[in-house]
Amino acid sequence: MTDPWVALEPGADPSERMRALRRAHERFTAAGTVARPVRPVVAASWRRSAGAHVSPDASAAVELSDGDLGTYRAEHPLTRVMPLFRELMGTFATDGEHLLAVCDAQGRLLYVEGHAGTRRRAGRMNFVPGARWSESAMGTNAPGTAVAVDRPVQVFATEHFIREVQPWTCAAAPVHDPRSGRLLGAVDITGGNGLAHPHSLAFVQAVARAAESQLALLAPPSTTDRGLRLNVLGRDEALLLTPSGHKVRLSRRHSELLVLLARHPEGLTGDELLCFLYEDESVTPVTLRAELARLRRVLGPDVLTSRPYRLAQPVDSDLATVERRLASGAVTAAASAYTGPLLPTSQAPAVARVRRRLADELRAALIARGDPDLLSDWAHAPWGEDDLAVWRALAATRPTAAVLARLAALDEEQGAPSPYAT
Q: Which of 363, 386, 358, 383 is nearest to 375 (CA)?
């Protein structure tokens, strides 16, 4: 075969290949060995799927729905090129009884469009917007594997790891942020065995490149176009992104100052900043003015004004993103944007209050939602590994041996007898 990423070489019999792959799949799921004619890319994906404990009889879970999905879509960069995807692929998908699908970098489906009858059939296996089709959740499949290996890939029929998906064939290509190179997700075409052709793989790859070119031409979102972007979650020192694309790592004190000033666009007096920043009441206004002067030099002229101290440009942040999503009830989207506590080592009183409030509100929302995947993500994160309330909620929804053992250990450490202890 000239291209190992293409499913069928010219002249191959699709029916015979499907039967041979089904036998190989049965052998792999029974004994863990890979036999010909399984392609190396598929064999590697099968092994990763097995290593992630994916069952060949698994079903996709819908993680984003209703408000969560709408909020997440609205903020995702690939939404901005959906008109292009529809223009290039929409007619092809509808006329060919195929589906156009777009996923994020975690394999969650953002959009599934195309032929109505095909969409209904795909819906029976939860190939729907909001469902997670990552390789670690749904085994070998084109969109999930494309983001896993970060390159275009085609998956033919019984190459799929999950049996329910084996009647389908798909091809997908990753899409990257043209400025940073960050993986944004993938664009996929899904349908029947007719897609097992080199042209379908080349097609989605060309569409992905066109999307990257379009993203490079599009103006950035209005908030970042007019102002600054501040990343402060899970970081001891903030990262400031300027409208021109420059990245500035701030000192801890400057990070605290920008967090507070961004939260108070109306401005703060020197006395208010002293109270918000310093536990030690002996710190003088002279010390604060010196810090603000240094910050003004970092930000550039005309960004930080005084009397009161305020920012002359709008500032958006990952902190504000999580707060907006929580306020709108988009719990899953809020959890996905939460990359850790706000400036975790900061001892500034006002920053510490915001840090505690955000964490408390998010964990309370996760417990109330009761989604085992969201609870598990929090519990296994560094900030949640000792969170007794979350582990109890997780044990109530997913009482595996490992979860119950961890909960029993936490109860013992914290002096509370566990109802799950054995």
A: 363
